[in-house]
Write a structure and sequence with these properties.
By secondary structure, the protein is mainly α. Helices cover 56% and strands 0% of the residues. The longest helix has 22 residues.
């Protein structure tokens, strides 16, 4: 068996983490109502509910 040096598995781990994040977003979008979705998005972004949120620049 071949030994892997530090960081050798990083691309595979990053790909797995990205796949999990995509699944998590899709799952929450499918099963939550608007209020639950908003709370989930804030939690996944690390923002606390009830705190003032930054304005988004749209357009």
């Amino acid at each position: 068996m071949r030994e892997l040096g530090p960081g050798a598995a990083a691309p595979q781990l990053e790909a797995a983490a990205d796949a999990y994040r995509r699944w998590q977003w899709a799952h929450h979008w499918r099963v939550l109502d608007d209020e639950g979705w908003a709370a989930s998005v804030l939690a996944m972004l690390g923002l606390a509910q009830g705190e003032p949120q930054p304005e988004l620049a749209l357009g």
